[in-house]
Write a structure and sequence with these properties.
With about 220 residues, this protein is of the alpha/beta class. The chain contains 8 helices and 12 strands.
């Protein structure tokens, strides 16, 4: 899942980014309204965390303009203003949720998860391919009844595959979804991660669940 954090305080933006990265999200930062609007229009983010008080263009205007351009990415609005009128204004501008500063990161994370769950269709408590089961809410992965230990990045990649069974997934698709703008698409880091995931989900003597599609990318096959 890829998140855009829009916050002009670089210190706060850095704290939020580090926390989200630790949870396995790919995170990009924007520090003013114009940059945020351009990035949200041009990149398929899964959620935007948007501060209201921004230089060049405030968050309310950014939100309204994105909605007017049919950008329907979930938006969690951040602000120091906590009156009912301010919350109503934020939601009426097109935001999906509203969080008042200062906030606990655990609450921010819970709101992000809640917004992302709304986007999952059909709504499901688990993803299952054969004996491989992934629980999006608890972020647990099981294979043949045994729990698997995956890093945050391994989990994010596997979830991306499991939401697209039998579909060809290119390295570019993985890079754009699981990494951020600083990702080096020419490196072999994706191949390294896929190899690690295979070692954890495959069984000896059986074909790998994640197949290499020559010249294209990978496919998670349904047994």
């Amino acid at each position: 899942m890829r998140v855009l954090v829009v916050e002009d305080s670089r210190r706060l933006a850095g704290i939020v980014k580090r926390g989200l990265l630790e949870e396995g999200y790919a995170v990009d930062n924007a520090y003013d309204g114009e940059e945020a609007e351009y990035m949200a229009e041009s990149t398929p983010f899964d959620i935007v965390i948007l501060d209201i008080m921004l230089p060049k263009k405030d968050g309310l205007a950014v939100c309204r303009d994105l909605r007017a351009k049919a950008v329907n990415t979930p938006i969690l609005m951040l602000t120091a203003k906590d009156s009912v009128e301010d919350k109503v204004t934020g939601l009426d501008s097109g935001a999906d949720d509203y969080l008042v500063k200062p906030f606990a990161f655990s609450e921010l994370l819970a709101r992000v998860r809640a917004l992302l769950r709304r986007e999952v269709l059909p709504k499901t408590q688990k993803l299952q391919i054969g004996e491989l089961i992934l629980h999006p809410l608890s972020r647990e992965v099981w294979k043949s009844g045994a729990a698997l230990e995956l890093t945050a990045k391994e989990y994010a990649i596997l979830e991306y595959f499991m939401r697209r069974p039998n579909a060809v997934v290119t390295r570019t698709m993985l890079g754009e979804s699981v990494w951020d703008y600083e990702f080096d698409g020419l490196s072999n880091v994706i191949d390294v991660y896929v190899r690690r995931i295979r070692q954890k989900i495959d069984e000896a003597g059986r074909p790998s669940l994640i197949q290499t599609v020559r010249g294209a990318g990978y496919r998670l096959r349904v047994p």
